[in-house]
Model the fold of this input.
Amino acid sequence: MRIGVMFPDVSGALMRHSATEKYPFQRQGVTARLRSLLKWNPEACTGCGLCAMDCPAEAIQVNVLDRKAKRFVFAYQVDRCAFCGQCVESCRQGALEMANDRWELAALNKEPFMLYFGDPDDIKTVLAAEPAGEAGIPADK
Done:
């Protein structure tokens, strides 16, 4: 290959602006169709567990404490989620939706990737009943 053939491409690349974005300092807007973390509406939820059954990544667990009193704990493992939206489509009551505002999901440990939704006392009850390794919290050594 001759150098004269490459010269227009090289000179054009040197004169253009960089395509690199200065990410943390200049953030781009997100699209409305972006699928990110789940939002759970406890008032609409009936605790049927259809979302957990249809989740291909097994990232959802619905713990029913008292169906009549609508006491549920919704456990969501963000690091297992494929963000496919199948749970949202499967929910007949419309209790689930995917947020588009939280898409930066990096962390130094696994604790922020296990989310529990529900009454704080009910969450403590569920966490006390589950073995530490299964609840998304590392087992004590």
